[in-house]
Amino acid sequence: MKRRKFLKNSTKITAGLVSAPLLASYPDTRKIETKTNDHAVETKPIAICTWNFQNATAKAWEVLKDGGSALDAVEQGVMVEEANENNQTVGKGGRPDRNGNVTLDACIMDKDGNCGAVLAMQNIAHPVSVARKVMEDTPHVMLAGKGAEQFAYEKGFEKVNLLTEKSKQEWLEWKKTSKYKPIINIENHDTIGMLAIDKNGDISGACTTSGMAYKYAGRVGDSPIIGAGLFVDNEVGGATATGVGEEVVRTVGSFLIVELMRQGKSPQEACEEGVKRIMAKNKDNTDFQIGFIAMNKKGETGSFCIHPGFTYRQYSNEGHVNNPSDSFIKR
User: Fold this and answer.
1) Is there a contact between 311 and 49 (Cβ–Cβ < 8 Å)?
2) What's the pTM?
3) Measuring CA to CA, which of 53, 102, 188, 211 is 20 to 30 A from 41?
4) DSSP per residue over 249-269, as a string?
5) Distances, alpha carbon 67 to alpha carbons 55, 56, 305, in Å
6) Listed residue (198, 239, 187) closest to 71, CA to CA
7) What's the CA gap between 19 and 245, in Å, rounded?
8) Rg (CA), the chain
9) pLDDT tens for residues 56-98?
10) Looking at residue 34, what is its pLDDT?
11) What amino acid positions are annotated as catalytic residues?
């Protein structure tokens, strides 16, 4: 049963209880027009993603330039890295947990605020597509572990061995000492988060990861958590994160950034404030990386991180560029 049909059936009885005068007392915010100097701004298609994943943004742009939706663009864009076995932080080939199991997390969010996520899912190569099925075909937002995997099989996804020989050998080498320490800008750029605006000015986002290498079994970071690793509000903009997810969860980072943009901050200003909120809770600990990217309804973008080294890739009519991010800690 489609989610909209499920919700429609479940609310049919109570809908009649809401009076017309009560509904009339609420402002109609469905049609918000972005304006600059009293002239409507034409929003042009754009796609951005965390890190220099140029093949991912190229795929997203291919969808957008042909008139496709932002939702299709972000899904197909991040799928490129889910299938890239040389990327050991996302999808097939991702580094396993300390027990040797590759577990994947992903979420997706559309222009209407619908969202879906899968957490700690094994044996499925494209978790972002399963997350979209959760969003569109169930009344739920999140499915986890074996339940998510079984749902994927029911939807026709094939069982895949996600542990490549390269990642396996690195894990076996790690087991000799079993020491765990996040490596800034290497082990922990463990996510691709993507935001896109389509020809209609609608925004969607997606985020997918294999999580931190050699994590405790069952660990889930911010990436599949709506509001933490990803948030989209079609009236305002979107934001997504990468890095040590535990710290992003503590501040509900992506939601915070979108709300700051709602209050009038630029994407750049909002990302900077998002990082500052995290660092205010870590005054004696700077040995980790967080990177945020954001985009508002006008297609303006911004980014900020803790340590130098984070970048984000952008594709629009103006070209395909990799943007270095300013940082809280300077070199």
Assistant:
1) no
2) 0.88
3) 53
4) HHHTHHHHHHHHHHTT--HHH
5) 19, 17, 33
6) 198
7) 44
8) 20
9) 999 999 999 999 999 999 999 999 999 999 999 999 999 999 9
10) 47
11) 191
